[in-house]
Predict the structure of Nitroreductase family protein.
Amino acid sequence: MNDFTNIVKSRRSANNFIEGVEIPQSDLEEIFGLVKYSPSAFNLQHTHYLVVTDPILKEKIYESCKQYKVHTSSAVILVLGNRNAYQGVAKINEGMHNLGILSKQELDRTIEIVTGMYEGRGETFMKEDAIRNASLSAMLFILSAKEKGWDTCPMIGFDPSAIKEILQIPDEYETVMMITMGKEKISSQRPRGYRKPNGEFVSYNGM
Ligand SMILES: Cc1cc2nc3c(=O)[nH]c(=O)nc-3n(C[C@H](O)[C@H](O)[C@H](O)COP(=O)(O)O)c2cc1C
């Protein structure tokens, strides 16, 4: 089995973690160093990761969602999607312009196209796109974490408004999901859930 197949097949959503394991900042930085290569619409990089390792904050999060793995995790990561990411289009592309890769005309055209698309399609699209892009990034986070020896669990079983208040998350960010991270307590692992065969979730050239 090659490394990628092994990572994909051995990844599980941890049911619980070994308590008291600290995650080195350097491991997190290495993981985010891979996560930044995630694709994003117009390369707008809508995703922001809010990493919580502070025990007091972590307990507040645990109190708000009562999922025990939050308590035993080494870190709780909030995956946020910026609904206004399109407003960063000039900033993201100006470096390419300064290097002479994008002409002034191409830069202006990019800004016009991106701004026109997001403002033309409106709030619902901005929200959906924040969730879409952050979800893709989150999958890469989960796989990168596994590659570095860390287990995770993506979670939606929490109250987003309580989390927003505890962590003072600005309004323009969608709280897309929570990821708990640590060393999995293998004795608590659940059997792998049934997976549909390809024939039930893939169709070619029409449904
Ligand atoms: C968007 C999303 C939200 C989830 N929320 C929770 C959650 O709140 N609590 C939990 O224990 N597991 C949660 N899970 C984990 C799923 O239950 C798990 O991925 C699924 O049962 C398949 O198991 P596996 O990931 O080990 O293959 C979530 C997964 C996803 C993708």
Summary: Residues 12-13, 67, 153-157, 177, 192-193 surround flavin mononucleotide (CB under 6 Å).
